[in-house]
Amino acid sequence: MDLKRFSFARQLFPAAGAALALAVLSGCANVALTNLTPSSLPENPSGIYTFTLRVVPKTSAVVPDSITPRIVVGAESHDMTRSDVSTEIFEFDYRLPPNQNDIGYYYLVSYNTEGNGVMGTHQAYTALEHAAVVSRYVLSLEVNRGPVGARIGVLGRGFTPQDLIGFDGTPVRTVYESSTSLGFFVPALAPGRTYKVTLSSAAGNSFVGTFRVDTSDVTVDPASLTLTPGQKQPVTFTITHPAPPGGLLLDVTTDIPESVIMPEVLVPEGQAAVTVTVEGGKPGAGSLFLKGYGSGEVSIPVSVAAGR
Prior knowledge:
Elements: H1 3-16, E1 31-35, E2 40-42, E3 48-57, E4 68-73, E5 76-79, E6 81-82, E7 89-95, E8 102-115, E9 118-125, E10 129-134, E11 137-141, E12 145-147, E13 151-157, E14 164-167, E15 170-171, E16 174-178, E17 181-185, E18 193-201, E19 204-214, E20 218-221, E21 225-227, E22 232-239, E23 248-250, E24 252-254, E25 260-261, E26 265-267, E27 273-280, E28 284-291, E29 297-304
Parallel strand pairs: 2-10, 12-19, 21-29
Antiparallel strand pairs: 1-3, 3-7, 4-5, 4-8, 6-7, 8-9, 8-10, 11-13, 13-17, 14-15, 14-18, 16-17, 18-19, 20-22, 22-27, 23-26, 24-28, 25-27, 28-29
C-alpha cells in the first residue's frame, strides 16, 4: 500500500467519521489481514473487550519479526501484542468508555520486506469495522431434546419477565427465573420432529437453537369418568420414566370445559405418577385429551350427568 495514499486516507478519517469506508487491502500482495473480532460482543462486568487480528505473510519477502499491528479506535491508536495461540494472531484489550456500546475501529499494520538486496517499509490497513456490545444474548438450551411437558432451561443474559420462548414461531409456556435463566415447558406438538426455538421480546426475536420432541407414553386410571355435578373422582396419571428436573407438565385439555373442574397436572421431579382430583361441573359429555403421547393423543371419555 502506497504510504502517501494511506496518509491521505488517515487525514480524511477524523472528518468523515463512520461514513468513511477504508478499502480492504486486497491489492496488497505482501500480507493478508483478517479481522477475528465478532461484530457482537457480550457485555461483561469489567468493560474490557479483546480485539483480534490475524496477519499472514503472502510472500517470503516479508520479514516476520517486523510485523507491527495497531488498532485505531476513534482518534486513538494502540499497539497490539502477539497472541500465545499463534504467531500470526495479535490482540488488544480495549476498555470501553462509560455509556458507549458501539465501537468503530480499523487495523493498521506496519512491516518490512527484504529481497534481492533491497529493503522496504510498508503499511496495510483494513476496512472500518464496527462492534456492538450487547447486554442481552442467549448462550444455549440446557438440553436439545425431551418429551412433551418437560421443563427445559435456557441460559443467557438480559432476560426479562416479558420474554417468551417459541417453537416454530408459536409461543409456549415460558417461566422467568432470573436475568440469566429462563425455563419453558415442551409444548404438546407432534413427537419425532425437530423444531426451531426462538426467544421473543420487545427487542425482537433471537434464534435459540433446535429442539427435538421425543415420543413418550402416559396411562390414565381410571380410563373413563362418569360423574355428577359436584362429585369428585381421583385420577392418576403415570408416565414411563421418572419426571426430569423441574417436573413434567401434562397439558390436559377438554372439549367440555364447563363440565370438568380439575387442577394443573404436574408430575413432580423424580416421580413417575401423580394423582389429581377431578370434579363434575355442568352436565355434559366429552373427553380429556393429552396431545403428544402414544400414537399422538390420549383420550379419556368423560360424562357428567345431572344428579337425581
